[in-house]
Design a protein that fits this description.
The protein has 154 residues and is α+β, with helices and mostly antiparallel strands. It folds into two domains: 18-60; 62-154, K homology (KH) domain (GMP Synthetase, Chain A, domain 3, 2-Layer Sandwich), CATH 3.30.300.20. It is 30% helix and 29% strand. It is built from four helices and six strands. The protein has a three-stranded antiparallel sheet, with no helix packed on it. The longest helix is centred in the middle third of the chain and has 23 residues, at 62-84. The radius of gyration is 17 Å and the shape is globular.
C-alpha cells in the first residue's frame, strides 16, 4: 500500500474522505497573549510569546503548538492504522524537543522520541514507523526543519 497522501489509509478511506475546511479564529488579548478558538468544537487554546521573544512563557507559544501538532499527528495517524489492523498502541507516548533558529527566527528542529509498547509485533513496527514519517503535519513542515523521529519499544 502506498504511503503518499491518503492512500496508506486504504482505498475505502480515500473514497469516503473529503477535505472540509476547518474554521478557527484568533483573538489578541493583549500582553502578547492570544486565544485560539476551534469553531467546530468551540475548544480553546491560549498562547503566550516565549521568554526568548518578549513573552512570559506562561503558555504554549505558537511555535510550541507546531511541535504539539506534530506529536499529536504522528500518534493519531499511527493509531488509526494500528487500530484498523487490530494492534494496540495503548500506553504509547511521544516526547518532543523544539529548537529555534535565531536568525531568521524560525523552528530549527523538532526532534521526537516515540515510545511504543514492546507488545507491538516486530514485523509490524516498520509499518507504523513509515506511517509516522508520513503524517500530514510532518509532510507540511519546511524541508529545513530537522524533524527526526526516534522509535523505542518498551
Amino acid at each position: 500500500m502506498a504511503l503518499g497522501g491518503a492512500l496508506w489509509f486504504g482505498p475505502a478511506w480515500k473514497m469516503r474522505y473529503s477535505a472540509p475546511m476547518v474554521k478557527m479564529s484568533v483573538v489578541y488579548e493583549g500582553k502578547l497573549h492570544c486565544n485560539l478558538i476551534h469553531e467546530p468544537s468551540h475548544s480553546e487554546i491560549a498562547t503566550d510569546a516565549p521568554l526568548d521573544n518578549q513573552g512570559k512563557g506562561e503558555k504554549f507559544s505558537p511555535t510550541d503548538l507546531v511541535g504539539a501538532a506534530l506529536g499529536s499527528c504522528v500518534m493519531t495517524t499511527m493509531a488509526i492504522v494500528a487500530e484498523r489492523d487490530g494492534v494496540s498502541m495503548a500506553g504509547a507516548r511521544a516526547e518532543l524537543e523544539k529548537e529555534m533558529n535565531p536568525q531568521p527566527r524560525r523552528i530549527r528542529s523538532l526532534r521526537m522520541k516515540i515510545t511504543l509498547p514492546a507488545t507491538i509485533p516486530a514485523d509490524y513496527r516498520k509499518k507504523l514507523e513509515r506511517v509516522a514519517e508520513h503524517c500530514p503535519v510532518h509532510a507540511s513542515l519546511h524541508p529545513d526543519v530537522d524533524a527526526g523521529l526516534t522509535f523505542v519499544y518498551v
